[in-house]
């Protein structure tokens, strides 16, 4: 199974548009199950002072971890640029999942990174920051980290990615992940 994570809790995010296109690109190339985990659509009751305690994980987070994280062999993180890095909710989510079934959740799993930004660097710095964290967790990051810049110019008014070069780059990275 492959889990594509739209890594922000911002409502109606640009990341979600790119995550949905990524899922389409994967589904064209594989029969493997692909699931979308949009952090904007999950309950955030797992952020509390006891979240790191042995039995501090909330039932809602355990359900997310059981459905999207534990069974996945591969992940795609679609990460928008927030203040020169990636959204804090993603770090909080990874930290919260590390409390239970650490090895089964992270160790040896493969990851593709897609950075998006309205600016010109495509969240290169955020992808580098996240790569360090994922390596610490024992995950293996695809060397082809894909930065996508000026995202507002690449989509139509419905949120569809219409730029042919961007579509091709995402499709190519998806193919690389499948063979990784």
What is the topology?
Blueprint: E1 2-6, H1 14-29, E2 34-38, H2 59-69, E3 74-80, H3 88-97, H4 102-106, E4 110-116, H5 124-136, E5 140-141, E6 146-148, H6 164-179
Parallel strand pairs: 1-2, 1-3, 3-4, 4-5, 4-6
Short characterization:
Strands 1, 2, 3, 4, 5 and 6 form a six-stranded parallel sheet that branches. The protein is 39% helix and 16% strand.
Protein traits:
alpha/beta, 180 residues, 6 helices, 39% helix, globular
> How far apart lie the N and C ends?
14 Å
Rg estimate, integer Å: 16 Å
Return the structural class.
alpha/beta
CATH architecture: 3-Layer(aba) Sandwich
- Could you state the CATH homologous superfamily? Flavodoxin domain
Bulk shape? globular
> What percentage of the residues does DSSP assign to strands (E)?
15-25%
Assign the CATH class. Answer: Alpha Beta
The DSSP helix count reads: 6
CATH topology (fold) name: Rossmann fold
Mean pLDDT comes to 96
Structurally, the number of domains stands at 1
Helix-strand pattern? EHEHEHHEHEEH
Helix content: 25-40%
Number of strands: 6
Poorly predicted residue ranges: none
């Amino acid at each position: 199974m492959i889990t594509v994570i739209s890594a922000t809790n911002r409502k109606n995010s640009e990341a979600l548009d790119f995550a949905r296109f990524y899922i389409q690109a994967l589904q064209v190339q594989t029969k493997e199950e692909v699931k979308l985990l949009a952090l904007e659509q999950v309950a955030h009751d797992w952020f509390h002072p006891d979240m790191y305690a042995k039995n501090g994980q909330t039932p809602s987070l355990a359900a997310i971890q059981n459905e999207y994280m534990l069974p996945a062999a591969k992940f795609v993180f679609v990460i928008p640029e927030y203040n020169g890095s990636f959204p804090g909710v993603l770090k909080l989510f990874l930290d919260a999942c590390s409390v239970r079934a650490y090895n089964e959740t992270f160790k040896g799993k493969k990851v593709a990174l897609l950075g998006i930004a309205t600016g010109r660097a495509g969240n290169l710095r955020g992808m580098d920051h996240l790569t360090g964290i994922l390596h610490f967790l024992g995950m293996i990051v695809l060397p082809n980290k894909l930065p996508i810049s000026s995202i507002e110019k690449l989509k139509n008014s419905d949120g569809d990615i219409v730029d042919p070069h961007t579509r091709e780059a995402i499709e190519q990275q998806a193919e690389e992940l499948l063979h990784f």
